[in-house]
Design brief:
Length: about 240
């Protein structure tokens, strides 16, 4: 993935060291100053890197004591609404593979209604992809994009992890909002082998519909391997209370 910042590179190195057992589980990690000297970065950069590892459950920060390696470190990627941002922070080495695509796929109901397709043109770009981390597939998705919002897209674009940014740029539109729903479901047969899960095994399923101010731009249905990806969100309680929410 492109545009990986310094703190993400520091986090990536420390993450690999923790998972490879170079740091003792439950042990105290070096101070921010020592890590900054090791990587030739500022303490603020180190702080951002450690915050990423804390979100992943790999380290625990104790006020007045220091940062400790988790007693049982394991790899799970915290998933936020911004998938690209989540991967950029927590899995910059993730790779995306295009499995199938069809530029002349015809949408039927209820999909045609969800995408608000005109009666005379229900043609879509349909595709399926898989995201892998160290040869382990951690997520798969199916995309449905009306042809008028996909005519500039190339195969290479569909393979980009930052696809949403590339898509909106190449098609010259602005995504104004996304409607997202997430639920636990059973792994469908068509994805069982790809994800390495038994049919019916628990998976997380996310459905996202992206819209401009006046049109539906596309729909994406994603499945996330529960052993490698977990849901994560932050609620600014004090800010909400000030607004009277």
């Amino acid at each position: 993935m492109k545009n990986v910042s310094l703190y993400q590179k520091v986090a990536s190195t420390l993450r690999e060291e923790i998972l490879e057992g170079k740091w003792e589980p439950g042990g105290l990690m070096p101070t921010e100053a020592k890590l900054g000297a090791r990587f030739s970065v500022s303490r603020l950069t180190v702080r951002h890197a450690v915050a990423i590892l804390e979100e992943e459950g790999l380290v625990v920060r104790r006020r007045g004591s220091g940062t400790y390696v988790s007693p049982h470190p394991s790899r799970r990627i915290p998933l936020e609404v911004d998938y690209t941002g989540s991967m950029r922070n927590h899995a910059p080495s993730i790779r995306r593979k295009l499995l199938r695509r069809n530029r002349n796929w015809t949408a039927e109901e209820p999909l045609a209604g969800e995408l608000r397709l005109p009666g005379d043109d229900k043609t879509l770009l349909w595709f399926q992809r898989a995201d892998s981390l160290k040869k382990q597939v951690v997520a798969v998705d199916t995309g449905y994009i009306p042809s008028r919002f996909a005519d500039q897209l190339q195969v290479a674009d569909l393979k980009r992890v930052d696809f949403l940014e590339v898509w909106s740029h190449k098609q010259n539109f602005t995504i104004h909002f996304c409607r997202q729903s997430i639920e636990a479901t059973g792994c469908p047969e068509e994805w069982s082998e790809v994800l390495g899960l038994a049919v019916g095994s628990p998976v997380l399923m996310a459905t996202e519909i992206f819209e401009s101010e006046s049109e539906v731009l596309g729909k994406f249905s994603s499945l996330y391997h529960p052993s490698h990806i977990c849901l994560s969100s932050t609620y600014f309680w004090a800010r909400a209370q000030r607004r009277g929410v």
